[in-house]
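Last lecture ended with a question: if I hand you only a sequence, what can you say about the shape of the protein? Today we answer it with a concrete record. The protein is histidine kinase. Below, first the input exactly as provided, then the predicted structure, then a couple of comments.
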Amino acid sequence: MIGLVALLSSALTVVGMDRVGDRIAASLQAERRLARYAVLSTEASTFLVVAAEAIQSGLPPEARAARLSPAAADLDRTFDLMRADLAAAVDEAAALGLAEQSRRASQGIAIARMEALFRTARAGLASDTRDRERLQGVLNGFAHAFDPLLNEAVGDEIRTRDAILTRIAALRRSLTGLALAVAALAALMVGGFYLGLLRPQFDRLDRVRQATRRIGAGDFAPDLPERTADEIGQLFAETNRAATALARDRARLNDTIRARTEDLRAANAALARIDADRRRFFADISHELRTPLTVILMEAELGLKGAAAPQDAFATIQARAQRLSRRIDDLLRVARSESGRIELCPEPMDLRIALAEALAETRAELEAAGLEVTVVPGSALRATGDPNWVRQVIAGLARNVLRHAREGGRVAFSVGPEAGYGCVRVVDNGPGIPQKDRARVLERFGRGSAAPPGEGFGIGLALARWVLEQQGGHIAIESPVPDGFRLGTAPGTLVGAYVPLVD
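The predicted structure:
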């Protein structure tokens, strides 16, 4: 009997919740459609304001259309969403009958008329005419016709929502009455069984409850009696076994927690380093971009005031602008490499030619900095890579020497095969890279610990590494420079750019 009452209560709950859920969902959909109408009203007002301003400003047709485009795009998107909402509402009304479906579908007429008014107004405002009165007439016609249609549609949605809420209230009253009847029946039956059957078992269950409390407090020796084989006796036995297992697992869990805590500390330290790199990167950007801009502005001001040597001012402006352009190019290359937008086109190429083109681009900068340039091109070496990007990698390595090792006074370039790869080596006579910094300088925004502020963003070697690895190659750093490649007494650095040889 108790089982039958439980089944009845479950069926009542399932059916009632299903119906209430359907009506609540329909009510929420109506509220969402009302919110969509509010958005539509706001966007239509924005469109009117933008159009009125464009008309009063006397903009030409192209500029007027461009000015209206963002507001028109918002309205197009909202109309699309409203049609989708209406289609969903029609599908939801299938359970309410054909009449309700037809009534909701008829709301699409108002939406279609509003959209037609909008498209007509947009076409009229985007026409080639410059007649303000004509354009104002188009705008006034749209405003006067659109508002009544919007109010009518909002009114229909409000009536739909109110009808749904009324049905929810009626269903709630019916379900409440049925639930009270089932509850009364269950109370009568449970009262009879409780006194004769259940109460004696509750005492045994109280012992289990007290035992679980002790286990929760860390006492894993509840010692429950296992004399009987009924369900509660089996529960006693399982509780005892669970307490024994928990005592055994607690030590392992503590060890795991300690290990995970150490992992979290390491992860937090890594995040702190990343955050520090991010702050330093933005500080470097500010410094690298502000300094040439300040010089450009000062030289331009001097030129405007009639400086005695305007050619010197123009030369300074040109040099600073080129420096600024290189920094912006660096940032663009990094952004494209992180997003995967760099398109590499590997093809057979001669690494000697790539080296020669990179030197033609950078030799003047190297020699102007007082560096003695040595080139050992070797014989023709056919490799598979993107010629343009391989050239940029070599040029970037050359500028890296210019930035970090110019005090060494020498730089050497060579090309040769090595273990199935073609290798372009760039060797300098600078201070070298400490062992602890070698992996870091190949990471995005990573710089050596001794690098002075403002000396680059830490992106050159990371970008070179990415470009080479995308083509099947790699980059290697050796510091100090091994014997046979040394250029002087300083430790120096050897950077090798490896590209796969042609089969």
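Comments.
1. The longest strand covers residues 410-418.
2. The CA atoms of residues 152 and 286 lie 56 Å apart.
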